[in-house]
Amino acid sequence: MTKKDLVRRIAAELNIDQVLTQRIVQMTLEGILQSVRHSGRIELRNFGVFEIKTRAARKARNPKTNQEVAVPPKKVLVFQPGKNVALQMRDSGKPAPPPPG
């Protein structure tokens, strides 16, 4: 599902304009990103936690030359699903079907 698909689905379900829905979705995503960048973590109850973690520096190999390469430490965004989300994912066994229409 793309952001555009999500916007269409929400707009259809709530019977509101897609342009307004797109602005709402975009502002929500930007708000999440700003919160994570500012505090390093955002918890969305009944959904999950987005958090910035630092990956340690490590040694890797270039597969073409088999030469060892130093990979510097980097920050990554990780998502830890909440209990409800994890249960739904475990119990579903397969992704939800796309919305009709």
3D architecture notes:
- This protein is α+β, with helices and mostly antiparallel strands.
- It has a single domain (3-92), classed as IHF-like DNA-binding proteins (HU Protein, Chain A).
- 44% of the residues lie in helices and 28% in strands.
- The protein has helices at residues 3-14, 18-39, 83-92; strands spanning 41-44, 48-55, 58-61, 68-71, 74-81.
- The strands form two sheets. Strands 1-2-5 form a three-stranded antiparallel beta sheet. Strands 3-4 form a two-stranded antiparallel ribbon.
- Helix 1 crosses helix 2.
- The radius of gyration is 19 Å and the shape is elongated.
- The model has no long low-confidence stretch (mean pLDDT 91).
What topology, given as strand order, has the largest sheet?
A: 1-2-5
Please, what is the CATH homologous superfamily?
IHF-like DNA-binding proteins
Overall number of domains: 1
CATH topology: HU Protein, Chain A
User: Briefly, what CATH class?
Assistant: Few Secondary Structures
Oligomer category: single chain
CA(first)-CA(last) distance: 14 Å
Helix content: 40-55%
Gist?
With 101 residues, the chain is an alpha+beta fold. The protein has helices at 3-14, 18-39, 83-92, and strands at 41-44, 48-55, 58-61, 68-71, 74-81.
Secondary-structure blueprint:
Layout: H1 3-14, H2 18-39, E1 41-44, E2 48-55, E3 58-61, E4 68-71, E5 74-81, H3 83-92
Antiparallel strand pairs: 1-2, 2-5, 3-4
